[in-house]
Amino acid sequence: xxxxxxxxxxxxxxxxxxxxxxxxxxxxxxxxxxxxxxxxxxxxxxxxxxxxxxxxxxxxxxxxxxxxxxxxxxxxxxxxxxxxxxxxxxxxxxxxxxxxxxxxxxxxxxxxxxxxxxxxxxxxxxxxxxxxxxxx
Length: 136
Known about the structure:
- By secondary structure, the chain is an all-beta fold.
- Helices cover 3% and strands 38% of the residues.
- It has one helix and eleven strands.
- A hairpin with a 2-residue loop joins strand 9 (108-112) and strand 10.
- The radius of gyration is 14 Å and the shape is globular.
């Protein structure tokens, strides 16, 4: 993965296979023969589908998260992490999910395929990549 702004996350063509909910909302991507990738959203996020838009937050409004569960089985068209700590996912049906950075907490994290990318408090990204042994 190259580090530039924006950072294209390796999710294009992958399908959401699980949507766990606790004090966060997560999207998991599992495919036979591939490592599981997880996005954990720990703060407010926006979900858009056609002309409708919902402001959601797993910690503050668990009733509203039903709308986010519609992401189950959707396929990613593009996934982008921004240097300011924001995250955007676009799905093939036109649905969009966006997560802004947070001042005091980690807004989201991406983990899988040897990568860990964290939206740091106050904005920005912390990025850890696979070791040379994991790349082989």
